[in-house]
Amino acid sequence: MAQFHFRQTTISQEFSAPLSLLELHQQIREELEMAFPDSYWVVAEISQVNADRRKGHCYLNLIDKGDDPRGALQAQARATIWSSRFQMLGRYFEEKTGQPLKAGLKILFQAQVRFHELYGLSLDIINIDANYTIGDLARQRQETLKRLEAEGLLTANKELEMPLVPQRLAIVSSATAAGYQDFIHQLEHNSYGYTFDTRLFPAIVQGNEAPASIVKAMDLIAKYSHLFDAIVMIRGGGSQTDLGCFDDYRVAAAIGNSPLPVITGIGHERDESISDLVAHTRQKTPTAVASFLIDRGRALETEVESLYDSIYMFAAQQLRLSADKLERQSLKISNLTNAYLQENREQLEHFSKSLLLKPKNFLHNQKLLLSDKEQLIRANTKDLLHLRGKELSELTVCVEGIGQRWLHMKEQDLNKLVHCIETEAKDKHKLSQLRFVKCSDRLQYSAQRSMSTASHRLDMLEMRIQANDPEKLLLRGYTLTLLNGKIIKHIGQVTEGDVIETRLQDGRLHSIVVNTDKDE
Question: Where do the domains of the chain lie?
Answer without folding.
Answer: 15-141, 156-303, 334-468, 474-512
